Amino acid sequence: MRGALWAFGLLVLLFLLLPILVVIPLSFSSGSFLSYPLPGLSLRWYEAFFASDFWLPALRNSLVVGTVSAALATLFGVPAAFGLWQRNVPGRRLILAVILAPLAVPAIVVAVALLLAFGPRGLANSFTGLILAHAMLCVPFVVITVLASLARFDPVLLRAAASCGADPWTGFFRICLPRIMPGVAAGAVFAFATSLDETVVVLFLAGPAQRTLPRQMFAGLNDEISLAIMAAATLMVLLSTLLLGAVAWLRRPRR
Amino acid sequence: MDGPLLRFERVSKSYPAAARGAAHPAALAALDLDVARGELLTLLGPSGSGKTTTLMLLAGFETPDSGRILLEGRDIARLPAHKRGIGVVFQSYALFPHMTVAENVAFPLEARGVPKPERAARVARALEMVRLPGYGDRRPAQLSGGQQQRVALARAMVFEPPIVLLDEPLGALDKALREEMQHEIRTLHQRLGLTMLYVTHDQQEALTLSDRIAVLAGGELRQVAPPRTLYDEPADAFVAGFVGENNRLAARVSSVEGETAHCVLDGGGEMPARLAEPLRPGAPCLLMVRPERVRLDAAAGLPAQLTEALFQGDHVRLRLALPGGAEVIAKRPVGEAAMPGPGATAMLNWEAGDAWAFRAEDAAR
What we know:
The complex is a heterodimer. By secondary structure, chain A is mainly α. Chain A is about 75% helix and about 0% strand. Chain B has helices spanning about 50-60, 100-110, 115-130, 145-155, 175-190, 205-210, 225-230, 235-240, 360-365, and strands at about 5-15, 30-35, 40-45, 65-70, 75, 85-90, 165, 195-200, 210-215, 220-225, 245-255, 260-265, 270-275, 285-290, 300-310, 315-320, 325-335, 345-350, 355-360. Chain B has two domains: about 5-235, P-loop containing nucleotide triphosphate hydrolases (Rossmann fold, 3-Layer(aba) Sandwich); about 245-365, CATH 2.40.50.140. In chain B, a hairpin with a 2-residue loop joins strand 11 and strand 12 (about 260-265). A six-stranded mixed β-sheet of chain B has the order 6-7-8-3-9-10, with helices on both faces. A five-stranded mixed beta barrel of chain B has the order 11-12-13-19-14. Helices cover about 25% and strands about 30% of the residues of chain B. In chain B, helix 2 (about 100-110) packs across helix 3 (about 115-130). The chains are: A mainly alpha, B alpha+beta. Chains A and B meet through helix 7 and helix 8 of A and helix 2 of B.
């Protein structure tokens, strides 16, 4: 029985990992076709990726959009979490539901709605529009991780700060923020990873100049089947793994 | 300056029923209370008595529904906590864990914009006062509970507030440490002339520390008096029962003679007591007498049967049954003439001035 459970568990893991495991070796292929067995190993597709003006601007766009929208989401999410954490917030559950709504609403619905809203205002096909959209989608991740951090923060410390003569701003920045910083950082990284991964909204909102890595992969599949796309995919897997590892490290239990 | 340092004037606070739960503080009804400069006043009461509410209102963590709180003549009742300039020592210490001891103690000075060189000197002096010199570079987590509480004290005093509030500061410490810290707080209070408002539910601690004790119950102030007066002349049956140990015997007033009431116990027998409140003959009453005031060597009095005698080191604790079934505890010195063993009968008596007669309904309140 025990053995069967182990086997089942391993099969499920394999099911989850197989697509990734198939992609990664292909990116090191010395051949030009999406097929196994590999004719040989080489880094030619990585060289092609980093020499290409098809992929490099997309990578840059991904990093810029991810960084700025993660920063915005943190700026919006941290105060929201801090506010919701206070006792006696009227309509607390409703506010939280609204903030978390982007998690529940299908991405395609958000994308269509944003296109309709942004289009007439000149925000479609612009970095501003794309960054605003991603910031909105990322806020829930920041709010959730920061709320989890605040659950371990002793509110008496803020009273102590006030009794020391510190106004609420000073109390927040000097006493609360340093204590919840790992959660804030984890939320920001989570937000960045979410933006990096996001494809549907980019598909609708990004013009040729704003194409991010996933969007460019989508285009690359249509235009030409170059194995450089596998290099791009592997890089994305690597980045996501690093980022999620960073989140786990930041949120590790302490003392 | 004339007048008290701190005055509560008809201060009331109530909480909506929905918000009230076990963790919520009790309401407060029209509290009038003065604290003199340099005084150590204790708010004493069981949980739900309103003592914590009083402290929260003073510290600025709650706002009263009505009434004024005057600190040095200025109404601070609606001022935000950080503008009150009152030092607070919390039960959980509430030290900032990411700061060193020195940074913790310097925080109130930093918040007030005291220049850095002066800060360092004042922090060093404060740490010396609580006997922790040289601990400035440690983190709170590296200190024992008693040391953390000293740091909390230093942080609450370093900016020389007019009054320091202490919210059950010794509740988390073991007995020996608690007694040491009581001594320390008392010493600091006397040496620095600090005004302190101390909250506790521990009547022994209140008796040990206080210049005066304010007893609260059910959101009402029952009595404010020095420890000795509170113990010897309790204002009502609640205070008599809460502060120190007391025997309570149900009785009925048979006659009144000036200050003295003669009372017939429900189980039979007539005993004298001082009138704590005006009572008419025939009124039901509650007799209260301290165990150490109960005498057993009398020729006359109440016949009682000894059910238990416990040796306590410095005294013997005796449990006696009265004819009606009521029970009386007596404490007698160990050296006293041969004690009867369990099962023996004794005549139980007390001086008229050592027992108090209270209105019977006080006990129920």
